[in-house]
Specification:
The complex is a heterodimer. Chain A is an alpha+beta fold. Chain A has 15 helices and 16 strands. In chain B, strand 4 and strand 5 form a beta hairpin. The chains are: A alpha+beta, B alpha/beta.
Chain lengths: 473, 477
């Protein structure tokens, strides 16, 4: 038997960032006490009717435009019927054969090369409620019922759990870029179903299984790893794969059968008679397209050209839209964009990750960072003191000149003052001075360090080294 | 005070002149209900105390100089519409214990004009039926002959109006449920065009067919109630944003310049000769009033009942899925898990006709059958709509019978659902096409059972339909 290869397709459900629900005016905020964001519509009361949230349609179409989808002029909603306690109406309003977005793709980098994972479609639907199980009873929290949910469906274009992970990360980056979702996995903003099959290369696709409702990317990665291994083992042992729906047991690290094909739901889709079809005016869609943000890849390339920074830097910065925004705001007014990039990639990202916060939440202003770089380049501030200033900016914001002034951090570049210190250091460290004279280069570093100590860190270190060399030369 | 033949408009004039108060009016209607409803069964609930307090408030408002097109006038409401704080059983056990947390838009608009919510009328369970025998609680009898049905599904509303137990009532019409009982009971019933009245708060049977409409003692009253209820509604995106004309003020008394069509497919073999004769006489009378009568054809009429029962049951199968015992209403005891609970709750909570239609609707939407049934029915619906478009190129409105026969006997058709469905042949077409239709009394059979004239008009052609009905009604007075 030749080596079996896997084929994977994903369905990614993304909660959209709208203030109100998909078909009623209830709030969507996460974490409210159970059943406090509900009304007759999202509770499925008799006589209640859905009214479409136009903003959810706009956000879905924006996503489609960002991902290169075709936006058909006409879309519609359909009813998808099945009974479950988390379904207020026992049908979900979704989109069956006329979704808002068709085609498109997401570029991923995997195995050292870049390629496009094709999308089948993106459609819009309403989220379901959340079942909660207690010791002897169960409850249903309908706050989530009716939250706008966008479903992004891929073609079976992925071939390993690593590729699936790369796709999810790239997709998340795009969604954050276009600002349609917070993509907060802890709050269940993103949930995935995956389809996987294995077959020998060149053979038709194998029988697939579906693993439902995973709410972490790591879960998708491990579930796929397990499931592909399981399918290969079954086939290699001479068995057959059964078409079925499985679930991922995080604790046990295995997938387990939920239901086989014969027991699959017949969703009995039919057009939602309570909602008119969605007519998308070409001029309106074109207007939305013009308002799209630059995609991460384009931005990376442009930043290399515009600021002369290395491609690697541009990639790191462009990965996160607010970080890239910050960089550009600082770099535009700077003579040294590479230094600005260095500060962001090292100090800024380190502090942000330590504090688990977002660049938009810290008080440091882009022009303050640009000024800091300028002061270092002008020799007004040495790099150690500059880090101190940056730490202050990160915590409190403010003006670097004032911080340097108030804290007396300005670099001493006065030749006479440093010469005095050099004399004192040489006097007090005769042995090191002698070592240097005898060719021991490391002794110079020690002596520079002594000058710095004497100046409480403010001496211009290169000037100190230069004067020491002159003095001992 | 005799309320037996008082119209809503007439009662409004009494109130305006100060000849009576709303409290007196409501008391008189409540007395009539007490006297006669045991024999008729038009109502499911009457909240006299609440009605009287609303009437007192209306009298006070009038004394304070506030106005309202329905100020102090009692209206009965079919038990399928949500009225805040009241039950809304849909004549089903499955909604036992449910109290509406909100007003239907149509109800809110009646209230805003000062109407008094008097009671809730009987109906076929979830509006599924043509006789009100499918009510889970009791049938409604025809006020003209107690062993005959009142029609359905708005049989309670029609009987209440005909028996003097209401000045006017609100019904709903999915395939004839306003027009057929109005015809059987001898009152006026208007099914507005689809989208004319907001459906928000109407417990859905078939969402693409349902409409709320008035059932009254005069065409003018129907015009008045439509005026109040019609218009766009942000809560119902199928409610059309079209201007609401002052229907009552625009009623005409002659029909000069009006062209009326007589569709040949609506005069079929097997229909009652008395019904045909009454409709023919009514048609002649309209000609005498100045109308020109033209023959038209609606060639796809014979497929309408089949298309209707596919579309209506398909939509119903989804609409009624929400009655599951989880959030409100009846929940069966002794279930072992959620699926078992659904099964037991729905088995015990729904009646036979509702179950039959849910099963039919589930079947026609099933994978593998969708194209053969649902899709074909939708295509037929388009053809039926085009039939009407073509007919209304040639005339302003159509004159037809409402039903092939007058009211049948209680129990006569309960064992033969198909015969019951076929009785809807002249009414379902208007719902499929989304057009408007009015039923106006035009005579009686030898047994004294009323016969109705159906006036069908194009979508949003209520003004024409009401004018024809009004002129015809006046000519008989």
């Amino acid at each position: 038997m030749s080596k079996l290869a896997s084929t994977i397709g994903l369905e990614v459900h993304v909660q959209l960032k709208t203030r109100s629900k998909m078909f009623c005016a209830c709030a969507t905020a996460f974490g409210a006490p159970p059943n406090t964001q509900v009304c007759p519509v999202c509770l499925g009361y008799p006589g209640a009717m859905p009214v479409m949230n136009g903003e959810a349609v706009r956000l879905t179409v924006l996503t489609g435009l960002m991902l290169g989808c075709t936006i058909p002029p006409r879309a519609k909603f359909d009813r998808k019927s099945y009974f479950y306690p988390d379904m207020p109406k026992n049908y979900q309003i979704s989109q069956y054969d006329m979704p808002l977005c068709l085609g498109g793709g997401v570029e991923i980098e995997a195995g050292g090369r870049t390629r496009t994972v094709r999308l089948t479609r993106i459609h819009l639907e309403e989220d379901v409620a959340k079942n909660m199980h207690f010791e002897t009873t169960s409850g249903v929290d309908f706050n989530r019922a009716g939250v706008p949910l966008m479903e992004i469906v891929t073609e079976p274009d992925l071939h390993s759990p690593e590729e699936a992970m790369a796709f999810l990360l790239a997709l998340k980056q795009m969604l954050l870029y276009v600002g349609v979702s917070d993509c907060n996995l802890e709050q269940g903003n993103v949930r995935c179903d995956v389809n996987a099959s294995v077959a020998a290369p060149g053979d038709p696709l194998g029988v697939k299984t579906e693993i439902k409702n995973m709410n972490t990317f790591k879960g998708v990665f491990h579930a796929l790893g397990y499931e592909i291994g399981r399918q290969i083992a079954v086939l290699e042992a001479g068995g057959r794969i059964v078409q079925e729906t499985r679930r991922w047991d995080v604790d046990a690290g295995v997938t387990a059968s939920m239901r086989t094909k014969e027991n699959e739901h017949d969703y009995r889709y039919f057009p939602e008679p309570d909602l008119a079809p969605v007519e998308l005016d070409a001029a309106l869609v074109e207007g939305w397209r013009r308002g799209l943000p630059e995609a991460p890849r384009e931005r990376r390339q442009r930043m290399v050209r515009a600021y002369g920074i290395p491609d690697y830097d541009a990639g790191v910065l462009a990965a996160d839209r607010p970080v890239a925004d910050f960089f550009e705001a600082a770099a535009r007014g700077s003579k040294n964009p590479k230094a600005v990039s260095n500060w962001i990639m090292t100090e800024m990202l380190r502090l942000l990750s330590e504090r688990e916060t977002d660049i938009r939440n810290v008080p440091v202003a882009p022009r303050a960072l640009a000024r800091l770089v300028e002061m270092v380049d002008a020799g007004t501030l040495n790099s150690n003191k500059a880090k101190e200033v940056f730490a202050v900016l990160f915590e409190q914001g403010g003006d670097p000149d004032r911080i340097v002034g108030e804290r007396g951090l300005a670099q001493v570049s006065d030749e006479a003052a440093i010469e005095g210190m050099v004399d004192k250091v040489v006097r007090e460290n005769e042995k090191s001075a002698a070592d240097y004279r005898n060719g021991k280069q490391a002794a110079l570093q020690f002596l520079v360090g002594q000058v710095m100590r004497l100046s409480r860190g403010k001496a211009n270190p290169s000037m100190a080294a230069e004067l020491l060399r002159k003095r001992l030369g | 005070m005799d309320v037996k033949s008082l119209t809503l408009t007439g009662a409004g004039e009494l109130l305006a002149r100060g000849d009576c108060t709303s409290v007196e009016l409501v008391t008189a209607v409540a007395d009539a209900i007490r006297r006669t409803d045991a024999a008729i069964g038009a109502y499911l609930t009457v909240d006299e105390e609440s009605a009287l307090s609303q009437a007192r408030a209306a009298d006070e408002a009038r004394a304070a100089g506030r106005m309202g097109r329905l100020l102090g006038l009692p209206v009965a409401v079919k038990d399928v519409l949500n009225v805040r704080g009241q039950p809304c059983t849909c004549a089903s056990r499955i909604l036992q214990g449910y109290l509406s947390p909100y007003d239907a838009t149509a109800v809110a608009r009646l209230r805003a004009e000062g109407a008094v919510m008097l009671g809730r009328t009987n109906m076929d369970e979830f509006a599924m039926g043509s006789s009100t025998e499918n009510s889970a609680f009791h049938p409604t009898r025809n006020p003209h002959a107690a062993d005959h049905v009142a029609g359905g599904s708005s049989g309670g509303s029609a009987a209440a109006v005909a028996a003097g137990e209401a000045l006017a009532a609100i019904g709903t019409d999915t395939g004839g449920s306003i027009r057929q009982p109005a015809s059987f009971c001898g009152c006026v019933g208007l099914k507005p065009s689809y989208g004319r009245v907001s459906r928000y708060g109407l417990t859905a049977f078939a969402s693409s067919l349902d409409q709320i409409g008035p059932m009254t003692r005069s065409v003018r009253d129907a015009a008045l109630l439509l005026e109040v209820m019609a218009g766009r509604d942000p809560m119902d995106s199928t409610a059309v944003d079209a201007a609401v004309p002052p229907y009552a003020a625009r009623l005409r008394e002659d029909l000069r310049g009006v062209r009326l069509g007589r569709p040949r497919e609506y005069f079929v073999d097997g229909m009652s000769a008395e019904v045909a004769a009454a409709v023919d006489a009514a048609t002649r009378r309209c000609r005498d009033l100045g109308a020109e009568i033209v023959e038209v054809s609606l060639p796809h009429t014979e497929y309408a009942v089949a298309a209707y029962y596919i579309i209506a049951t398909a939509e119903a199968s989804a609409n009624l899925a929400r009655f599951d015992g989880v959030r409100y209403g009846f929940r069966a005891a002794g279930a072992t898990d959620p699926i078992d609970m659904y099964g037991k709750t729905r088995a015990q909570g729904f009646g036979a006709e509702v179950k039959r239609r849910i099963i039919l609707g589930t079947y026609v939407l099933s994978s593998g059958y969708y194209d053969a049934y649902y899709l074909s029915a939708q295509k037929m619906r388009t053809l039926i709509r085009r039939d009407f478009d073509a007919a209304f190129e040639r005339c302003d409105a159509l004159l037809t019978p409402v039903t092939p026969t007058t009211a049948f006997r209680l129990g006569e058709k309960t064992s033969d659902p198909l015969a019951m469905y076929l009785g809807d042949i002249f009414t379902v077409t208007a719902n499929l096409a989304g057009i408007c239709g009015l039923s106006v009394p035009c005579g009686a059979d030898a047994g004294g059972l009323p016969i109705g004239l159906q006036i069908l008009g194009p979508a949003f052609g209520e003004e024409v339909v009401l004018s024809v009905g009004h002129a015809f009604e006046r000519s008989r007075a």
